[in-house]
Amino acid sequence: MKMAIMSEVEIVDKVFGFIVGSYETTATTITLTMKYLKQNTEFFNEIMEEQNEISRQMIPRKELCWNDIQKMKKTWNFVNEVLRNTPIVQGVFREAIEDFTYEDFHVPKGWKIYLSFGATQKNGEYIPNPTKFDPSRFEGNEVVPYTSVSFGGGHRMCPGKEFARILILVFLHHVLKKFRWEAKVPLEKNMYPFSLLAIPTDGYPVTLSTL
């Protein structure tokens, strides 16, 4: 069997993709979630109640387990709304594998198609009050499938979604239980859409204090 050999450029491209896909996106999601939590105190209190209840149920156990993660529904809904409101990645390219027509527009096989997450996830035709920050929209069936696609969808769903979810929720649990923070740049903007990722312009520097 003849083995396919990647060029050095292809190897660099794959490695860079792994770094962005596994580290940068997760770290940026955590950063934006902390930023939104500080800006939305009503949701902060709800999430703290959820995390405190989970801690009470853990006694005398100190380590989080799978069942604890599954109970963090309000926290994960908040994260999903952060990702919907400010997509970490602006969009993705796909290639048409066959000719097709969409709303009288013909797309030939081989054409590259760009899916804009920001446009899709803020489309009022599918998401009620799209400019309103409302984590409760993820509690039921309000979000139409394939309209909020922070982790992709279908057979191209991000294979690291569950790992990222666990990493984000475990991190947030310990931060919320042990620390409080104040933003050093309260009105800091994000580089989105002028950067590959929606990173705060100053990196979201904070003053951290222990509880």
UniProtKB/TrEMBL annotation:
Keywords: Heme, Iron, Membrane, Metal-binding, Monooxygenase, Oxidoreductase, Transmembrane, Transmembrane helix. Gene3D superfamilies: Cytochrome P450. GO terms for biological process: sterol metabolic process. It is found in: Membrane. It is a single-pass membrane protein. Heme binds at residue 158. Its main location: membrane. It holds the Pfam family p450. Belongs to the cytochrome P450 family. This is Cytochrome P450. It comes from Solanum verrucosum.
